[in-house]
Amino acid sequence: MQMASNHYFLELEPPAERLRHAPHVVIVGGGFAGVHACKALAKADVRITLIDKRNFNLFQPLLYQVATGLVSRSDVATPLRELVGKQDNVQVLLGEVTTVNPEGKQIVFNGKAYSYDHLILATGSGSTYFGHENWRTFAPPMKILEHAEEIRRRLLMAMEQAEQTPNPEARQFLQTVVIVGAGPSGCEMAGAVSELMRWALNNAFKQLDPQKTRIVLVDPGDRVLRAMPAELSEAALKALERDGIEYLPQGRVQTMRPGEVVISSPDGDVRVQAATVIWTAGVKPSHLGQKLTEATGCDVDRGGRVIVNPDFSIPSHPEIRIAGDLCSYSHTVNGRPLPGMAAPAKQAGTFIGKDIAAIVAGGSRPTFRYVDFGSMAVVHASAVADLHGFKFSGRIGLLLWAIVHLALIPNRENRITLSIKWLYALATRQRASVLLTGMPSQHLALDAEDAHFPMASGTGPSIAEPDAALKAAMDYYAHQLSGLPQTQELLDTKEASVADSEAAIK
Q: Containing domain of residue 315, as a range?
């Protein structure tokens, strides 16, 4: 079948006439790196195939705001076809790349093999529990939209349950949240949860006392925001403490079960009973990194990220580039690897696109120079920022944080929407997106290693029935209050039938 001259489908139909024999660039991953690589190749004589398991670009730095009801999912997600699909040399396809064949210059995509001339892998990272994958069920991570919505659901369901609970100790339990990890994501989540539970819902729930809310922030380090200067860490900690957030330094999670977290500390084990636990402590590179290593013998760092050359290629395969959270790039002025953040990924993607364009055109190739814009984190109504040695905190830090994040948002409509919602929240301390919708919990294993496309859960942890996580936590807590020994039934991590009256966790 002959298609219109400006359409094509990989090798099945020819592209536009000027691109009929053009090199084929395959980009796997529609995050910051992948999208900006596409944009940098907009005028190049190449045909591009952008592949992702989702049909949208997700602005992960603001997921915590989705989790706490400040913004909605559409405010942080932009369709890929809206971002790059209008380029006449780009085709966006939904699916998962399962295999890379470097010798044959092919990928296996949705069960079929497709050839490439240049390959860009920018598949990002997922969450890791450091060998305790069963904790994923008890403490959702925060990497994809479904995770954020699950966290929001658990927070709101706990408060709904507390509203109907006459026992003040049980209400205290339901109003307790543990957040594991005191990096930017953990600190921002802690501040947002405090705002949600202490202020935004203060007038909405008649039985709840905001002062009974307890938020515990746990981290193995000796200070929050360890990547930032000590004075900014101290400023962030003071802001957290003003919100009543408890910080437990040098704390490592030892065990986790429904309703309880046991944490080791220099002063001994700390047992925290909490209805909601949130995990922001660790990330792991995409599984494609391991598959590429097996296929090419390329090296990885101790975190599993692929070690790349100065042009982001791998040894012996200059046609393969790695960008974003999947790569370990240490060819910087100070020799430190690029951090896994939006700005470095954006710069890397843009450089790779320009470099490939130069190769195709036979021109002089650019040199990558990373521009470090610093780091920042927001805590409630203030923020800390380290911008090239210039340190800011408080409201000035918050303003800078907002400007930088709005600049990184790829969609103009979302920039406008977010600006309005942020201003409204600052003025009223209200949340606009505190809806309990959808089916809970079945998506928790979407970023597990055995999860498969299209967005089906693997054999990893999942919840067997709606709101089973909260019910299991409540059952365990009730046993603790009664003084009765907990039963194996409550601690069982094997799947049970939905019809089973007891909540079971797989």
A: 17-127+284-361
